[in-house]
Design a protein that fits this description.
This protein has seven helices and seven strands. The chain is of the alpha/beta class. It folds into two domains: 59 residues; 150 residues, Glutaredoxin (3-Layer(aba) Sandwich). The chain has a seven-stranded mixed beta sheet with strand order 2-1-5-4-3-6-7.
Length: 241
């Protein structure tokens, strides 16, 4: 009897192994397999997240159109200022930027810069508040508003402009990009670099000596709205000048 018992023991152990293998075959994964599957799911999730981040980055890097377009990224440019230094629009990322086309011999510009100091005061106030205000002259050589270096410095000083922010676009490249046709012709760019307003400085339509800026100053209105996270009430007005 003892000899029979020892003979049965291997058979019983073999049966136990077969039962365990059968259970595994029924789809009950062991612990290491479950952990591997969980890890794989986590890696897949991370890959999907990275894909979404790349898609968002690609969207943010959408190039600016060739011509300035409302609610699109404003075309970048680099111009020399009256001091001979390079000024690049992209350097003012995360700031509100105002572009004002200027011709100091234009009757409308004379009204704002010689007959009154309201516009210069507004520029200073905005700069103190963190807004970048750039005046751009696209007058070519021999045209009204184009001066030699010495004369330009005198004219700038006369009306109390800031030479660091007076930009020269004599070949009209930037003026064409923004389709600036008159002076003053103004544009407001938000902190994301998108064009949010273009047109007249204000609703002034008659040149009157010593007359202050009108009640509806479109540029200030647009800047204030952007600061408040809102869309400007007026986005595209007809420039005068």
């Amino acid at each position: 009897m003892k000899r029979v018992g020892w003979m049965l023991l291997p058979l019983l152990m073999l049966s136990a192994v077969i039962v365990v293998q059968a259970q595994d075959a029924d789809g009950k994964p062991d612990k290491p397999a479950a952990e591997t599957e969980k890890k794989a799911e986590g890696e897949a999730g991370k890959t999907a997240e990275k894909g979404e981040e790349k898609a968002e980055d690609k969207k943010e890097e959408e190039p600016a159109p060739e011509k300035a377009t409302l609610d699109k990224k404003a075309p970048d440019f680099t111009l020399k200022n009256a001091n001979g230094d390079d000024v690049k629009l992209a350097d003012y990322k995360d700031k509100i930027v105002v572009l004002e086309w200027i011709n100091l011999d234009c009757p409308w510009c004379k009204k704002h810069y010689e007959d009154s100091d309201e516009l210069v005061k507004l520029q200073k106030e905005m700069r103190e508040a963190g807004v970048v205000w750039l005046t751009i002259c696209s007058s070519g050589e021999g045209e009204q508003g184009n001066f030699d270096a010495d004369t330009l410095k005198k004219r700038i000083k006369k009306v109390d402009l800031n030479a660091d922010f007076y930009l020269l676009d004599a070949d009209g490249t930037v003026g064409h990009k923004y389709e600036a046709r008159t002076t003053p012709h103004c544009y407001v760019i938000d902190k994301e670099g998108k064009l949010r307003y273009r047109g007249a400085l204000d609703n002034l339509r008659v040149r009157m000596k010593n007359k202050k800026l009108e009640a509806v100053n479109y540029v200030k209105q647009a800047v204030d709205a952007i600061k408040d996270g809102k869309a400007p009430a007026d986005t595209d007005t007809k420039p005068y000048g």
